[in-house]
Design a protein that fits this description.
This protein has 108 residues and is an alpha+beta fold. The chain has a domain of 73 residues: TusA-like domain (Translation Initiation Factor IF3), CATH 3.30.110.40. The protein contains 3 helices and 4 strands; from the N terminus they run H-E-H-E-H-E-E. The protein has a 4-stranded mixed beta sheet, covered by helices on one side. The radius of gyration is 20 Å and the shape is globular.
Length: 108
Amino acid sequence: MSHAPADGPHDARPGRHDARPGRHDVPEDPVASAPVVVDARGLRCPLPVIRLAQVAADAPRGAVIEVWATDPAARADIPAWCRLRGQTYLGEVPAEGGAAAYRVRLAS
Protein backbone atom coordinates (compact mmCIF):
# COMPACT_ATOMS: atom_id res chain seq x y z
CA MET A 1 0.00 0.00 0.00
CA SER A 2 1.51 3.37 -0.98
CA HIS A 3 0.59 6.79 0.27
CA ALA A 4 1.08 10.07 -1.59
CA PRO A 5 3.25 12.55 0.32
CA ALA A 6 1.41 15.44 1.97
CA ASP A 7 3.34 17.99 -0.09
CA GLY A 8 2.63 16.38 -3.47
CA PRO A 9 1.38 18.16 -6.59
CA HIS A 10 -2.15 18.54 -5.21
CA ASP A 11 -1.10 20.13 -1.93
CA ALA A 12 -3.22 23.29 -1.49
CA ARG A 13 -1.17 24.82 1.33
CA PRO A 14 -0.12 28.44 0.71
CA GLY A 15 3.38 28.84 -0.65
CA ARG A 16 3.50 25.38 -2.20
CA HIS A 17 3.88 25.20 -5.98
CA ASP A 18 4.13 22.34 -8.42
CA ALA A 19 7.23 23.03 -10.51
CA ARG A 20 6.47 20.46 -13.21
CA PRO A 21 7.05 21.66 -16.78
CA GLY A 22 4.00 23.32 -18.28
CA ARG A 23 2.61 24.57 -14.99
CA HIS A 24 1.80 28.28 -14.87
CA ASP A 25 1.24 28.70 -11.14
CA VAL A 26 4.95 28.90 -10.31
CA PRO A 27 5.72 32.48 -9.25
CA GLU A 28 7.96 34.61 -11.47
CA ASP A 29 11.39 35.64 -10.29
CA PRO A 30 10.80 39.27 -9.14
CA VAL A 31 14.32 40.34 -10.17
CA ALA A 32 13.91 38.91 -13.68
CA SER A 33 10.56 40.65 -14.17
CA ALA A 34 11.70 44.12 -13.04
CA PRO A 35 11.77 46.49 -16.02
CA VAL A 36 14.99 47.93 -17.40
CA VAL A 37 14.61 51.72 -17.35
CA VAL A 38 15.86 53.85 -20.23
CA ASP A 39 15.86 57.47 -19.08
CA ALA A 40 15.34 59.48 -22.27
CA ARG A 41 13.80 62.51 -20.55
CA GLY A 42 14.79 65.72 -22.32
CA LEU A 43 15.89 63.89 -25.49
CA ARG A 44 14.18 64.72 -28.76
CA CYS A 45 13.13 62.42 -31.59
CA PRO A 46 14.65 60.05 -32.66
CA LEU A 47 16.89 59.64 -29.58
CA PRO A 48 14.37 57.88 -27.27
CA VAL A 49 13.88 55.14 -29.87
CA ILE A 50 17.61 54.91 -30.56
CA ARG A 51 18.28 54.44 -26.83
CA LEU A 52 15.52 51.81 -26.67
CA ALA A 53 17.08 49.92 -29.59
CA GLN A 54 20.54 50.03 -27.98
CA VAL A 55 19.27 48.61 -24.69
CA ALA A 56 17.09 46.02 -26.44
CA ALA A 57 20.11 44.70 -28.35
CA ASP A 58 21.79 43.69 -25.07
CA ALA A 59 18.70 42.69 -23.05
CA PRO A 60 17.54 39.08 -22.69
CA ARG A 61 14.48 37.76 -24.48
CA GLY A 62 11.28 38.45 -22.58
CA ALA A 63 12.76 41.43 -20.75
CA VAL A 64 10.57 44.46 -20.13
CA ILE A 65 12.08 47.82 -21.04
CA GLU A 66 10.52 51.03 -19.78
CA VAL A 67 11.44 54.17 -21.72
CA TRP A 68 10.96 57.41 -19.80
CA ALA A 69 10.46 60.20 -22.31
CA THR A 70 9.22 63.78 -22.37
CA ASP A 71 9.22 64.15 -26.16
CA PRO A 72 5.61 63.88 -27.40
CA ALA A 73 6.80 62.05 -30.54
CA ALA A 74 7.76 59.04 -28.40
CA ARG A 75 4.03 58.29 -27.95
CA ALA A 76 3.88 57.26 -31.64
CA ASP A 77 7.52 56.33 -32.25
CA ILE A 78 7.88 53.61 -29.60
CA PRO A 79 4.77 51.61 -30.60
CA ALA A 80 5.85 51.95 -34.26
CA TRP A 81 9.32 50.62 -33.39
CA CYS A 82 7.68 47.66 -31.63
CA ARG A 83 5.57 46.82 -34.70
CA LEU A 84 8.59 47.06 -37.02
CA ARG A 85 10.82 44.95 -34.75
CA GLY A 86 8.28 42.34 -33.65
CA GLN A 87 8.26 43.44 -30.01
CA THR A 88 5.24 43.79 -27.73
CA TYR A 89 4.14 47.29 -26.78
CA LEU A 90 2.68 47.09 -23.26
CA GLY A 91 1.41 50.66 -23.03
CA GLU A 92 2.09 53.97 -21.37
CA VAL A 93 2.07 54.90 -17.69
CA PRO A 94 3.12 58.11 -15.87
CA ALA A 95 6.79 58.33 -14.84
CA GLU A 96 8.88 60.66 -12.71
CA GLY A 97 9.34 64.32 -13.57
CA GLY A 98 6.31 64.71 -15.83
CA ALA A 99 7.55 62.06 -18.24
CA ALA A 100 5.63 59.15 -19.69
CA ALA A 101 6.92 55.60 -19.33
CA TYR A 102 6.49 53.49 -22.46
CA ARG A 103 6.71 49.77 -21.70
CA VAL A 104 8.01 47.20 -24.18
CA ARG A 105 8.41 43.42 -23.77
CA LEU A 106 11.08 41.90 -25.96
CA ALA A 107 10.02 38.90 -28.01
CA SER A 108 10.91 35.59 -26.43
